[in-house]
């Protein structure tokens, strides 16, 4: 079990978590609430001057933990795969401009295309981005997604697969984002976290909870402590690898998005200390 | 890839698939449609004389493929675990009375109880049923469930785990039910099916499809061919082990249950030949 969290020095919140707030509002509120880090989703940057956004976050003393998200690399047609690679190169540029050390990859999958083929295309797509990533000084974090997203969101569904892929790519510009929502059920999770850390690939740690019942495959994530995930145990495994990065609160929830976001942010802080 | 299916000699339909029909109606319709096997869900037996049900199915020339379902063995309190074992013993008796060669186990899980503890309780619970199973001549089929059910339905979420458990129990009265809906995403599936067959544990094969998008975690299964599951490939792996049992159509679907069940049964037959 991890040691209790006693302050917010490692608390990061994803902008998607407080989706109703635009970037400026979220940043101001996070900062005022004592949140230390922010993970910026690309939708919040649309039409914005990223240099200004970077300066705003600096002024608010918020560390940019990562940019979400790149990926979606598999496609049936080569032209679409190239378009996906181009979009990932753009995401790398955006991360560099924003000062984000890495881009999180939701790797993608094509319904009906064999998962083995999608995985091959993912690995090739990431490989095609590595020179650009190195030049920009931005890393790429493979995020294994829950098997319930294997149809159209990610053909990488376990930490073992992500470890295999990161090790095969064997680049200092590739690592892994560990999200408890996607991985908590895996009987091999402790071992795979250990392996991920030992190989220098553990780049990010995302937290939330799994509701029982879960009413929506995408947007019914729970606040830490509401569900069944052994969060403190998993954080203990992550920290045992030497990881000292942020605990990133990433919650997609129609329920919470419909609530007052100030109150929700207070709930996040309370749950972070009590249950994370 | 498996060879094409050309007739209905190995087609089994679960009573839950045509949920609006009571047992008698389902049996008559299945038989009239040329379906060869039936898997009976216990809810359809409630309040019925099982010997009469057995005779009815014999008269209709329907083979009873299995009884669904036992399991739900983990619980926080020992008394509840014992109650679960007692219910499984009852399911074994029902299967014996009905002439079903095995009971399918949805093993169970308790939200918040460590999965490792639930797995231990599952294995102990099955072990406690084995003498009774042997005496009744009824086998128990562990069904690994999709990881999205790890919170409250099953702590056994991969075929590797089911293989481990069946091999540890090491009894001729324990085997495994392979369901494509739960397992299709698993990168190790081909190997684990091979292992399952080699150890004599492959007892049942359930088919349906995975819809994109899936709108409900429980009751939005697709008809074969509607979704992204590599069904023919998986059936090929299953048959390569020497499996010659039924292809059991098990579809939970609010959508199909709301339709005319005769038309749905026709669709099942068509999809069975075309896509299974």
TrEMBL record, chains A, B:
Keywords (A to Z) from UniProt: Isomerase
Domain Xylose isomerase-like TIM barrel: 31-267
Cross-referenced InterPro entries: IolE/XylAMocC-like, Xyl_isomerase-like_sf, Xyl_isomerase-like_TIM-brl
MF term (GO), any: isomerase activity
Gene3D superfamilies to which the protein is assigned, alphabetical: Divalent-metal-dependent TIM barrel enzymes (3.20.20.150)
Domain of life of the source: Bacteria
Identification of the protein by name: Xylose isomerase
């Amino acid at each position: 079990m991890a040691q209790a969290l006693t302050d917010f020095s490692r608390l990061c919140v994803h902008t998607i978590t407080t989706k109703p707030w635009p970037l400026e509002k979220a940043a101001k509120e996070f900062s005022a609430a004592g949140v230390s880090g922010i993970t910026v989703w690309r939708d919040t940057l649309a039409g914005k001057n990223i240099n200004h956004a970077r300066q705003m976050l600096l002024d608010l003393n918020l560390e940019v933990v990562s940019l979400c998200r790149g990926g979606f690399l598999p496609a049936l047609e080569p032209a679409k795969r190239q378009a996906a690679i181009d979009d990932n190169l753009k995401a790398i540029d955006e991360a560099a401009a924003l000062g984000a050390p890495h881009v999180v990859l939701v790797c993608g999958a094509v319904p009906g295309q064999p998962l083995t083929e999608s995985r091959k295309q993912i690995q090739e797509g990431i490989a095609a981005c590595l020179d650009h990533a190195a030049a920009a000084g931005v890393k790429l974090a493979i995020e294994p997604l829950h098997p319930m997203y294997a149809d159209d969101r990610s053909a990488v569904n376990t930490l073992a697969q992500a470890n295999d892929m990161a090790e095969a790519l064997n680049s200092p510009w590739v690592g892994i984002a560990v999200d408890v929502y996607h991985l908590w059920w895996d009987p091999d999770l402790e071992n795979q976290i250990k392996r991920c850390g030992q190989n220098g690939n553990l780049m990010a740690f995302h937290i939330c909870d799994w509701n029982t019942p879960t009413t929506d495959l995408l947007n019914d994530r729970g606040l830490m402590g509401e569900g069944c995930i052994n969060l403190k145990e998993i954080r203990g495994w992550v920290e045992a690898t030497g990881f000292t990065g942020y605990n990133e609160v990433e919650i997609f929830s129609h329920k919470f998005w419909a609530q007052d976001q100030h109150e929700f942010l207070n709930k996040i802080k309370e749950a972070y200390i009590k249950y994370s």
